[in-house]
Amino acid sequence: MGSQQSGRPGRRIPGRSRATWALSYGVGATAFRAGARRGDLVARLESDRALQLAPYDVYDELRATPVHRGGVVWASTDHAAVTRVLRSDDFIVGAGGAELPGPLRGLTGRLLDPWAAGPVDPPSMLATNAPDHTRYRRLVTRAFTARAVSGLEDRIRETAERLLDGLDDGSSRSGSADIVERYAALLPVAVIADMLGVPDEMHGRLLEWGNIASVTLDPSLSWRDFRRAEDAMRSLHLWFADHVRALQADPGDDLISRLAVLQGEEQLTDLELRATGLLVLGAGFETTVNLIGNAVATLEAHPEQRAALRDDPSLWAGAVDEVLRHDSPVQMTLRVAQRDTEVLGVEVPARTAVVAYLGGANRDPAVFDDPHAFDLRRPNAGAHLAFSSGAHFCLGASLARREAEVGLRLLYERFPDLAVAGHPVRRDTRVLRGYERLPVALGERVRAG
Ligand code: HEM
């Protein structure tokens, strides 16, 4: 195991927490609110709940130029420009406040509590650049290749069947259930936990901590929500450190056991191992839940396409890609120019932060005909950027696709008449787009086997 990291586990240092919040979220939140009052489009998108729920008209407006020069941050919803930002070496992920003014730059990194580091804090892969990023990524890629994932298919199917049996056991009174809570959230956490050697009894707590911590992805966050998220991250770190110790004593055939015994140049420090493991774990269940939920809601609104899926299950793969395009579970990411550069004719000075709206690029009419329509037979649905592009392209893309395809197909085979009933509630997050609650009537069951 690598060197011990500084910082006392489990204890908040109040001044440090407050300063971390102020630099990472407080400054941004204030700037967005002020910008929104001036009518700045990106600031409005980031601070107005109504636009958060229905951002697509503003995305269209922003597309008037390949890169929109916002008052707080720049942004793009243009497919070609977003692709270039994500793939170009001129842009990096903005770890350590690279976009902040001079004296503040680098301070966030120094303030960071290593026992509460979240998915957008270094050394998470999402917040590191080459060469460290390349090193971490190389260690975990193998577990998530298309080939490795096709080997998991039986396991995904068994897990989905078991969860559907649970839905079917009469505990869902009068045949109704919150399909997010009872299915869409449970399938991904069971699959990724299994891959990481995490025991079944931890699923509930992981979901709870993950839900609280996922707000840290958003650009603005209240002090209160930040503190809750920091506490949840701290619980995750403490639990994960114990998990690693248990696997070192008794290694299994799982990714964390393999990472924990690396030696020599590949060896990870304690913090690197926690950051990598917790990112893979969290990314594994906090995103796919939204894909499955968004698919159920979208198919409810398009009964004729749902009927087509029943008649021809081979359409599921295309349908999943079209949901990813049409209602992207991750709406945006951020990059910072590391030198003066240019994107499709727009000059971008060094240290400019650019929001890459994946959900906006996925509605670009230059790439997708009639982009606001949902069409599961769309020939180029797979050209979406829902999994990002370039060095940080989603590591779990094959796994997410497979979980959604298998999970949705089995859900509708078991409950062909499933229908949304009651009031769906969207999650109150900006980066992640999905449902907090999606009540459904299950209808007549078709027994398995
Ligand atoms: C529908 C489901 C999913 C969506 C929409 C999604 C989306 C994304 C996106 C957009 C990024 C890149 C962010 C950026 O460029 O800044 C990303 C990165 C990542 N995803 Fe996913 N993801 C999903 C499921 C998964 C799953 C199941 C895993 C499980 C392993 C996973 C693991 C990761 C990891 C580890 C990264 C960081 C990669 C890096 O920085 O090199 N994701 N994901």
From TrEMBL:
Which SUPFAM superfamilies does this entry report, sorted A to Z?
Answer: Cytochrome P450 (SSF48264)
The organism's place on the tree of life at top rank: Bacteria
Q: Which InterPro entries match?
A: Cyt_P450 (IPR001128), Cyt_P450_B (IPR002397), Cyt_P450_CS (IPR017972), Cyt_P450_sf (IPR036396)
Q: Which PROSITE patterns match?
A: CYTOCHROME_P450
- What are the UniProt keywords, alphabetically? Heme, Iron, Metal-binding, Monooxygenase, Oxidoreductase
Q: Can you tell me which family this protein belongs to?
A: Belongs to the cytochrome P450 family.
Question: Which PANTHER family does the annotation name?
Answer: BIOTIN BIOSYNTHESIS CYTOCHROME P450, P450, PUTATIVE (EUROFUNG)-RELATED
Record protein name field: Cytochrome P450
* Organism for this UniProt entry: Nocardioides plantarum
Q: Which taxonomic lineage is given here? A: Bacteria, Bacillati, Actinomycetota, Actinomycetes, Propionibacteriales
